[in-house]
């Protein structure tokens, strides 16, 4: 008899499995219908010996010392600060937009943050109410920068006009008055020294944990006894799409290996113009691997496929609320993670949510889906400091 059946071996499932096994001495079975652990963070060495991320780039960053210290039990780190360039008007320019971006694009010579702020103010289109993604951008940096950097990219990524998307979609990518070209500004920015999969292997190596791959949990429900379930898959699928499918955007990936040491001048180059792919990532920048060849991946947004990005529209939020009500009233099952709570979380936020849920479980108090999200977003459960979770929005980098 297992104490817990955990569905899904990504961050949410693996953290809860490790905590329950090592700290509460619980017997845990964790299953995944894929043929590997680590969820979308899965990385592996390709046929050329290059370490690649199968599901696109995953860049670890956090402001939480608790999350970073927790994961540090299972990996050493390679310091890494992520930078991204955007191909605009024949130039490769820093994004998020900063003073360097503006100077190079328009041939200006803005020297101070005050001068850059004044420039943005001079081109911005004031909005009485910022409702849409378009509103959010043009009200800060104006129409031209919106069209060059955001309009096509956002429409391609979401399959919707920016006028149809919530303002939170664009809010994830700031505009800066300084020359800081780092993509993230978090206190802790690093990559697992030997990759994500190795880190997950160490997390799941406890003798109380058993792992089953290539396994749909529904195939074993009547075969393997357990007391409670932790479910990290799509919440609508758990309830057999009772109210209809929750809308997601997906991606397909085209991996290539090139017989040269370097393909592009930065880890990620975005293509905000009218192309059919969003960006190209070169993995050696992320991994620090030295190799005479290099591996890249193109990302193509799709309407169908594995669920990656919840589509942030009011009607979708309302549909999720119906599933959340069912989840809250389902005894013996905890719904945790991106898919189970229909939220786009960064990796550190999923870890924080899982740690918070562990505290709730072992405190003999089952929190509802809403309560877990609210608690992670605003304060502490027990002695665990946790992160503020963002509104659902477009991830500028898969993370």
Task: Give a verbal description of the structure.
By secondary structure, the chain is of the alpha/beta class. The protein is 33% helix and 21% strand. It has 14 helices and 19 strands. The strands form five sheets. A seven-stranded mixed beta sheet has the order 8-7-13-14-15-12-16. A five-stranded parallel beta sheet has the order 10-2-1-11-17, with helices on one face. α1 runs parallel beside α13 (347-362), α5 packs antiparallel against α6 and α13 (347-362) crosses α14. The longest helix is centred in the middle third of the chain and has 16 residues, at 143-158. The radius of gyration is 22 Å and the shape is globular. The two termini are 35 Å apart. The model is unreliable at 364-399 (pLDDT under 50).
Overall helicity = 25-40%
pLDDT < 50 runs, ≥5 residues: 364-399
For the termini, the CA-CA separation is 35 Å
Strand segment count: 19
Features:
399 residues; alpha/beta; Rossmann fold; 7-stranded mixed β-sheet; 5-stranded parallel β-sheet; disordered C terminus
Question: What is the topological layout?
Answer:
Elements: E1 2-7, H1 11-23, E2 28-31, E3 43-45, E4 51-53, E5 61-62, H2 65-71, E6 77-79, E7 84-88, E8 91-95, H3 99-106, H4 113-123, H5 133-141, H6 143-158, H7 168-171, E9 188-192, H8 196-203, E10 209-212, E11 226-231, H9 235-238, E12 248-258, E13 268-270, E14 279-282, H10 283-287, E15 294-302, E16 309-310, H11 314-328, E17 333-335, H12 338-341, H13 347-362, H14 369-378, E18 380-381, E19 384-385
Parallel strand pairs: 1-2, 1-11, 2-10, 7-13, 11-17
Antiparallel strand pairs: 3-4, 5-9, 6-9, 7-8, 12-15, 12-16, 13-14, 14-15, 18-19
């Amino acid at each position: 008899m297992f104490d817990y059946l955990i569905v899904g071996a990504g961050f949410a499932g693996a953290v809860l499995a490790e905590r329950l096994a090592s700290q509460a001495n619980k017997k845990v079975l964790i299953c995944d219908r894929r043929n590997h652990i680590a969820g979308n963070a899965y990385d592996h060495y390709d046929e050329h010996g290059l370490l690649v991320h199968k599901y696109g780039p995953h860049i670890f960053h956090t402001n939480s010392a608790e999350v970073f210290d927790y994961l540090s039990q299972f990996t050493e780190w390679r310091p890494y600060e992520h930078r991204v360039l955007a191909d605009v008007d024949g130039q490769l320019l820093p994004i998020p937009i900063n003073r360097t971006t503006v100077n190079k694009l328009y041939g200006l010579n803005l020297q101070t943050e005050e001068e850059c702020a004044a420039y943005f103010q001079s081109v911005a289109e004031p909005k009485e109410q910022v409702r849409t993604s378009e509103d959010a951008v043009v009200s800060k940096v104006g129409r031209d920068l919106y069209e060059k950097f955001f309009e096509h990219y956002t429409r391609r990524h979401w399959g919707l006009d920016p006028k149809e998307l919530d303002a939170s979609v664009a809010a994830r990518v700031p505009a800066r008055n300084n020359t800081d070209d780092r993509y993230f500004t978090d206190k802790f920015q690093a990559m697992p020294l030997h990759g994500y999969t190795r880190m997950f292997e160490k997390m799941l190596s406890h003798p109380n944990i058993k792992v089953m791959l290539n396994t749909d949990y529904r195939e074993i429900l009547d075969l393997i006894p357990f007391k409670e379930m932790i479910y990290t898959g799509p919440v609508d699928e758990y309830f057999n799409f009772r109210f209809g499918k929750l809308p997601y955007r997906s991606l397909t990936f085209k991996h290539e290996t090139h017989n040269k040491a370097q393909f592009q001048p930065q880890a990620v180059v975005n293509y905000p113009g009218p192309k059919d792919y969003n960006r190209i990532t070169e993995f050696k920048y992320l991994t620090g691997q030295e190799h005479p060849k290099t591996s890249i991946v193109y990302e193509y947004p799709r309407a169908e496929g594995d669920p990656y990005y919840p589509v942030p529209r009011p009607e979708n939020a309302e549909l999720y609320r119906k599933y959340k009500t069912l989840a809250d009233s389902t005894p013996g099952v905890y719904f945790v993670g991106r898919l189970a709570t229909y939220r786009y979380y960064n990796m550190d936020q999923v870890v924080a949510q899982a740690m918070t849920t562990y505290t709730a479980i072992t405190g003999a108090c089952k929190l509802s889906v809403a309560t877990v999200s609210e608690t992670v977003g605003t304060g502490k459960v027990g002695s665990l400091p946790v992160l503020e979770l963002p509104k659902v929005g477009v991830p500028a980098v898969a993370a």
